[in-house]
Design a protein that fits this description.
Blueprint (H helix, E strand, L loop, with lengths): L32 H14 L7 E7 L5 E7 L2 E3 L2 E7 L3 H8 L2 E8 L4 E11 L2 H9 L3 H9 L9 H14 L10 E15 L7 E8 L2 E6 L3
Antiparallel strand pairs: 1-2, 1-5, 3-4, 4-7, 5-6, 6-7, 7-8, 8-9
Helix pairs in contact: 4-5
C-alpha cells in the first residue's frame, strides 16, 4: 500500500483503545448546550487535564481553503466563546473575510470532544483592553514583538525586538491596535462521548431561532 509506514514509528491503524468512561443518556439532557459545556469544562479542569481551555480553531479563506490551529478559550457564556489574538494573523485575515469558524475541544483522556460551529464577531475594544491589561507583562510585550504569521529570518530577530520593547516599556504596556478578540456565536454544538464497541454518544444542539433543537446523531 502506498503511503504505508516506512519509518520507525507505531502503525496508526493498529492503535486501538476501548472507550468506557461515561455516557450521554437521552434522559436529563439540558434544553440548551451551555450548562452541559460548563459541566464538562469543569470536570476537565477538576481531573487535571493540561490546558482544558485549549481548543482547535478552524477558519477558511474566501475561496474555501481551510486552516486550523490551537488557541486558548478565554471566556464563555450565553453570548458565545471568546479568544484573543493578533488581528493581522492568518486567522485574523480569514475571519475578516469570512466570519465563520469551528471549534473543537479534544478532551482525549476523558474520551470526550465538543464541537462548536458558528459566526464570529470582533469583541469591543474595552473588553480587549481589560483582558490585555490583565495579562503578564511578558505576554503583553510579546504581543507587540510578534508580527504573527509573518516570515522571519532568524529567532534572533524576534528576541532582539522583544528585548528592545521590554526596555521601552518596563511598566505599563499599551494595547496594540492590531491585537484584539473574537466571539464565536454558536449555531451548533455537538457533545461526543466515547462508548464501547464504537457505539459512541453524539448529542447535537442546533439553534433554531431563539431556541435549541436537541438531536442524537449516529456515531
Amino acid at each position: 500500500m502506498r503511503g504505508s509506514n516506512d519509518v520507525s514509528a507505531p502503525d496508526p491503524a493498529r492503535l486501538r483503545e476501548s472507550y468506557a468512561a461515561g455516557e450521554l443518556p437521552d434522559e436529563g439532557l439540558p434544553a440548551e448546550p451551555l450548562p452541559l459545556f460548563a459541566a464538562w469544562f469543569s470536570e476537565a479542569a477538576a481531573v487535571g487535564l493540561p490546558e482544558p481551555n485549549a481548543m482547535v480553531l478552524a477558519t477558511a479563506s474566501p475561496d474555501g481553503a481551510p486552516s486550523a490551529r490551537t488557541v486558548l478559550l478565554k471566556g464563555f457564556g450565553e453570548d458565545g466563546f471568546r479568544f484573543f489574538t493578533n488581528l493581522e494573523s492568518r486567522k485574523g485575515h480569514e475571519l475578516a473575510a469570512n466570519p465563520r469558524a469551528a471549534l473543537v475541544f479534544p478532551w482525549h483522556p476523558m474520551y470526550r470532544q465538543v464541537r462548536i460551529e458558528g459566526t464570529v464577531e470582533e469583541l469591543p475594544r474595552e473588553d480587549v483592553r481589560l483582558y490585555f491589561e490583565g495579562r503578564p507583562h511578558g505576554s503583553r510585550i510579546g504581543a507587540w514583538a510578534s508580527h504573527q504569521s509573518e516570515v522571519i529570518g532568524t529567532r534572533a530577530e524576534i528576541e532582539d525586538r522583544y528585548a528592545a520593547l521590554n526596555e521601552r516599556w518596563p511598566g505599563e504596556v499599551p494595547l496594540p491596535d492590531f491585537w484584539g478578540g473574537y466571539l464565536v456565536v454558536p449555531e451548533a454544538v455537538e457533545f461526543w462521548q466515547g462508548r464501547l464497541n464504537r457505539l459512541h454518544d453524539r448529542i447535537r444542539y442546533r439553534r433554531t431561532g431563539d431556541e435549541w433543537k436537541v438531536e442524537r446523531l449516529s456515531p
